[in-house]
């Protein structure tokens, strides 16, 4: 947990730009003070008119004073804009440094972190929480400096005019200060956190609603799904109302009624001190009445600033929830794997600390072997692949590559040694060439083309308008699941890592696509250690060894022929598979 104050933390991220932030506060305060000067000229104009009445020709300074008021107003505005430019430059720097630090930290976390944390939540933290600090530094803090300077300047001005008015104007400032102190305490903080949580829930539900539209429509559950979204909006509305009632309304009531209350106090005071009232005092009172609305405005501003400070507090708390997560341990004595074998020694892994997804697993895969993990859904096949590629570190046991614990292999070397071809190999919105080059940016165009050819992708390239330079995901150019997986295989071929983990796709739209994907898999397997997560038994024919995974245990292992001969889960699965094929053939005939 961070112990620094929010502001000093933010200034840490600003680096040398912090001086721009400080300048913006000074400029904003200066602008607020200069903004009071036109009021003084206004008062001079009124005073001159009142004194000259009924002969206006006596009022000779009206134009001069009018121009001076306009000039000071323009000067104040220019200084304010200069302050905003400084604060924006610093705020952009802070927000981008904060985003960069968060992203750097996320990269160091276990690879499976983003999936388990929730990508929507992560996006909110990286974008919106950092954005909140940007608005705070760019606008809110300079405004606060101005809002504090204004009442102080006013006090000095009013004391210079008449000490009685000076004292009188202290009262609303003090009262406002006390009310704000009482509101920014733990009650408002608690309400702010609840309000922000409700806001987060509402945006999550919106994302889930939009994401789930195809499924929802398929099953005709539109009303039910919409109700969940609607409920989150209702919960948010309840919090907004409660928050506004408890914190904002009393303050708004106070600031809007302040002038009338204090004008009334002055009038009452005058009645009691009639003797002390001079013509000059009355004119000064006029100035007081002209200028005191500024106090209301600045108090309202300060109130919203304290609220904004709570928003930043909450944003930094959310960022810390990511920064406080432990990255994967790094080794100081990096070792090189002696071969491309993979071994698990007594590995146990649990996602939630209660139920084990893998339990005491030990297995060995020789270098160059092709093995398949098969078994019922939820048995632990994907989790096994995840611990091998260090998506997560197991709580117990060791994973060895070439006889070396994966924790002792430099992360970059590990990433170059092991590749993972996911079932949903999402391609990014870029050209095919760029998508393939992601695995090895320095590769030449020829190398990319060879990888695409070996991954059976030439039929895809030929039908695209700009061949390998066609940007996919835009202008109606989309690839099927099988086509995307072939491009992903080309990407892995280009990377040329000696160990490949393959999450085999569950379904292909047509047999032609399926046979091409199988051919691409075969090209990938050549000369490599291949670990395949096989969802269908049709794809395990080439496997040297099969591991049957059920309930987090390896319940059987051996070659396909060996396993088919003995009574057990594999033979049962094999028989079911054969029956399904016979049904399929019978139906086609
Ligand atoms: N991110 C996760 N958080 C919590 N539990 C998980 C997570 N992913 C998987 N599990 C649980 O771990 C167990 C093993 O899941 P795993 O995905 O490894 O099985 P699988 O054999 O690959 O299944 P399938 O063939 O359906 O993909 C299951 O009980 C599953 O519910």
TrEMBL record:
Localization per record: Cell membrane
A GO term, aspect molecular function: ATP binding
Domain ABC transporter: 342-576
Keywords attached to this entry: ATP-binding, Cell membrane, Membrane, Nucleotide-binding, Transmembrane, Transmembrane helix, Transport
Source species, domain of life: Bacteria
ABC transmembrane type-1 domain residues: 26-276
UniProt cross-references to Pfam families, sorted A to Z: ABC_membrane (PF00664), ABC_tran (PF00005)
GO cellular component: plasma membrane
PANTHER family: ABC TRANSPORTER, ATP-BINDING TRANSMEMBRANE PROTEIN, ATP-BINDING CASSETTE SUB-FAMILY B
Listed name of the protein: ATP-binding cassette subfamily B protein
Source organism per UniProt: Kineothrix alysoides
Source taxonomy: Bacteria, Bacillati, Bacillota, Clostridia, Lachnospirales
């Amino acid at each position: 947990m961070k112990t620094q104050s929010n502001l000093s933390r933010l200034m840490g991220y600003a680096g040398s730009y912090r001086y721009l932030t400080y300048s913006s506060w000074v400029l904003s305060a200066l602008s607020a003070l200069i903004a009071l000067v036109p009021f003084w000229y206004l008062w001079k104009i009124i005073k001159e008119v009142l004194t000259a009445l009924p002969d206006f020709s006596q009022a000779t300074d009206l134009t001069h004073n009018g121009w001076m008021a306009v000039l000071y107003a323009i000067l104040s505005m220019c200084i304010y804009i200069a302050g905003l430019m400084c604060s924006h430059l610093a705020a952009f720097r802070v927000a981008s440094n904060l985003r960069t630090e968060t992203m750097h930290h996320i990269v160091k976390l276990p690879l499976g972190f983003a999936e388990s944390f929730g990508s929507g939540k992560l996006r909110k933290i990286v974008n919106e929480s950092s954005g909140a600090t940007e608005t705070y530094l760019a606008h809110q803090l300079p405004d606060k400096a101005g809002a504090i300077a204004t009442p102080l300047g006013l006090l000095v001005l009013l004391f210079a005019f008449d000490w009685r008015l000076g004292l009188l104007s202290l009262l609303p400032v003090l009262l406002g200060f006390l009310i704000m102190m009482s509101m920014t305490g733990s009650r408002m903080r608690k309400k702010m956190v609840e309000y922000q949580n409700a806001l987060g829930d509402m945006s999550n539900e919106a994302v889930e609603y939009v994401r789930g539209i195809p499924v929802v429509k398929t099953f005709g559950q539109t009303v039910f799904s919409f109700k969940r979204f609607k409920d989150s909006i209702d919960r948010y509305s309840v919090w907004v109302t409660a928050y506004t009632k408890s914190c904002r309304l009393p303050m708004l009531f106070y600031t809007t009624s302040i002038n009338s209350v204090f004008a009334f106090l002055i009038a009452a005071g005058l009645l009691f001190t009639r003797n002390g009232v001079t013509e000059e005092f009355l004119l000064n009172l006029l100035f007081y009445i002209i200028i005191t609305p500024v106090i209301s405005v600045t108090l309202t501003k300060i109130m919203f600033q304290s609220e904004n400070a709570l928003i930043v507090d909450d944003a930094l708390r959310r960022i810390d929830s990511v920064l406080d997560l432990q990255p994967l341990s790094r080794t100081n004595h990096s070792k090189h794997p002696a071969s491309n074998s993979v071994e698990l020694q007594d590995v146990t892994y649990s996602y939630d600390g209660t139920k084990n997804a893998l339990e005491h697993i030990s297995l060995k895969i020789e270098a160059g072997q092709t093995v398949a993990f098969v078994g019922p859904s939820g048995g632990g096949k994907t989790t096994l692949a995840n611990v091998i590629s260090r998506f997560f570190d197991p709580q117990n046991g060791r994973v060895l590559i070439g006889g070396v614990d994966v924790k002792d292999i430099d992360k970059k070397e590990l990433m170059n040694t092991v590749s993972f071809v996911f079932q949903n190999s999402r391609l990014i919105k870029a050209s095919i060439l760029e998508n393939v080059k992601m695995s090895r940016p320095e590769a030449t165009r020829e190398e990319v083309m060879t990888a695409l050819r070996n991954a059976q992708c030439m039929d895809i390239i030929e039908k695209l308008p700009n061949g390998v330079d066609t940007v996919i995901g835009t202008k109606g150019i989309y690839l099927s699941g099988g086509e995307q997986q072939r491009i992903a295989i080309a990407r892995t071929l280009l990377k040329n890592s000696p160990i490949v983990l393959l999450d085999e796709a569950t379904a292909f739209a047509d047999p032609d696509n399926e046979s091409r994907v199988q051919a691409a898999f075969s090209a990938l397997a050549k000369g490599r250690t291949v670990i395949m997560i096989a969802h269908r038994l049709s794809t395990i024919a080439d496997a040297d060894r099969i591991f049957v995974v059920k309930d987090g245990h390896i319940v059987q292992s051996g070659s396909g022929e060996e396993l088919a001969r003995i009574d057990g889960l594999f033979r049962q699965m094999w028989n079911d598979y054969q029956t399904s094929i016979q049904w399929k053939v019978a139906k086609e005939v």
